[in-house]
TrEMBL record:
Source organism of the structure: Naumannella halotolerans
Pfam families: YhhN
Full protein name: Putative membrane protein YhhN
Recorded topology in the membrane: Multi-pass membrane protein
InterPro entries reported for this sequence: TMEM86B-like
Coiled coil residues, start to end: none
Family: Belongs to the TMEM86 family.
Parts of the chain that traverse the membrane: 81-103, 115-134, 140-159, 190-209
GO molecular function: hydrolase activity
Subcellular localization: Membrane
Residue numbers spanned by region Disordered: 215-238
Compositional bias (Polar residues): 228-238
Length: 238
């Protein structure tokens, strides 16, 4: 599949899913959601990136995002939260492992003045959710730590990756608030969760593909170099 067609497929799936969210069409919404991660996998594979740990861990993260999106649709409702936490937690771990070599380019090393913003956000999320999380408290704490770590490391991919990490933080924070904070009410919260989730996946994949894509040489470089060499030697073809 052509990379542009894969991106187009992702865009169509995203628009359809968000439209079905607004129309409160659960069956159509669930069906369209399962196409999101596979279309991004198609984007990565069609980009023909050189094999690398980051590329492979990105693909693994997308696979487990697909698991988190799909399996709850076919299993009993009481298992949904367990499958979601497991699938997306493993996806976050894959992102962290893949992005770890880029830590010297990220907020972990550079622009450290932004670190407190992420840490305060994580602590505020935990402070709001832990009192009512019950038996999910350990999972909430562990997931919050992984989420902040992934978002920080994603900044190593540049501003696009940083936006992707922030979008993931917003999406997962909305999920946590919606499930564990009794006073939290947001109209169309499902739409907001999925809009930020879709943006996060798309931005992270776009940033990673951009980072891994080999630089292209302009075909005009060699002739210019040849003419320069001719002029330097004083040899003329006339």
């Amino acid at each position: 599949m052509n990379t542009r067609l894969a991106w187009l497929g992702f865009g169509i799936a995203a628009v359809l899913h968000l439209t079905f969210q607004l129309l409160a069409a659960p069956t159509a919404s669930a069906l369209s959601q399962v196409f999101l991660a596979p279309m991004l996998i198609a984007v990565v594979l069609s980009s023909r990136l050189p094999s690398s740990p980051l590329r492979n861990w990105m693909l693994a993260a997308l696979v487990f995002s697909f698991v988190g999106d799909m399996l709850p649709k076919f299993l009993p409702a009481w298992t949904e939260i367990y499958i979601m936490i497991t699938g997306f937690a493993v996806a976050q771990i894959c992102w962290i492992i893949g992005l770890w070599p880029l830590r010297s380019r990220s907020l972990v090393i550079r622009r450290r003045w932004q670190l407190p913003i992420y840490l305060i956000t994580g602590m505020a999320l935990l402070a709001a959710c832990i009192p009512t999380a019950g038996r999910f408290t350990p999972a909430v704490i562990a997931y919050a730590v992984m989420l902040i770590a992934m978002a920080l490391l994603a900044s190593g991919l540049g501003w696009i990756g940083q936006l992707g990490g922030i979008a993931f933080m917003i999406s997962d924070a909305l999920i946590a608030f919606d499930r564990f904070v009794p006073w939290f009410e947001l109209p169309q919260v499902g739409f907001a969760i999925m809009a930020t989730y879709i943006a996060a996946l798309g931005l992270l994949v776009a940033a990673t593909v951009r980072h891994l894509r080999p630089p292209t040489r302009s075909p005009s470089v060699r002739p210019v170099e040849s003419r320069q060499a001719t002029n330097d030697t004083g040899v003329s073809g006339a």
